[in-house]
Design goal:
By secondary structure, the chain is an alpha+beta fold. It contains five helices and two strands. The protein has a two-stranded antiparallel ribbon. Strand 1 and strand 2 form a beta hairpin. It is globular, with a radius of gyration of 16 Å. The model has no long low-confidence stretch (mean pLDDT 83).
């Protein structure tokens, strides 16, 4: 949370090591993605605030903020590394937009998400 001060702590949600919320909304694992679906995804590195310095800060902090269970053995891959995520716009109790990543780094068009959010704001 200290590395992302833009998200109020009261709005942060942590699912836990079982990833029940991820499963309930249909997020899969990238090692289970159909090869034909993976071919459709065009990935590009995101613009990192701070340029090279921002990337360095990200890489040096990623291990400390990754969801690694305390009983993880050396050489095992944490479930959180395999899990795909997504993007939601929620209005009251309704999900008005959902995007499920097909691979890590597969994100929706930011402008489209903002437009949906503006419509329901």
């Amino acid at each position: 949370m200290d590395l992302n001060p833009y998200i109020p702590r009261s709005r942060a949600f942590v699912d836990g090591y079982e990833f029940d919320a991820y499963k309930k909304v249909g997020f899969g694992r990238f090692d289970e993605v159909d090869k034909e679906v993976a071919k459709q995804v065009k990935l590009a590195a995101p613009d990192m605030p701070g340029g090279v310095g921002g990337w360095f800060k990200y890489m040096t902090n990623v291990g400390s903020i990754s969801p690694i269970p305390p009983d993880m053995k050396f050489g095992e891959i944490p479930e959180g590394v395999l899990r795909l995520g997504g993007t939601f716009v929620v209005s009251g109790d309704d999900v008005v937009y959902q995007w499920s990543d097909r691979l890590p780094g597969d994100h929706p068009d930011t402008n489209a998400v903002v437009e949906v959010a503006k419509t329901y704001a």
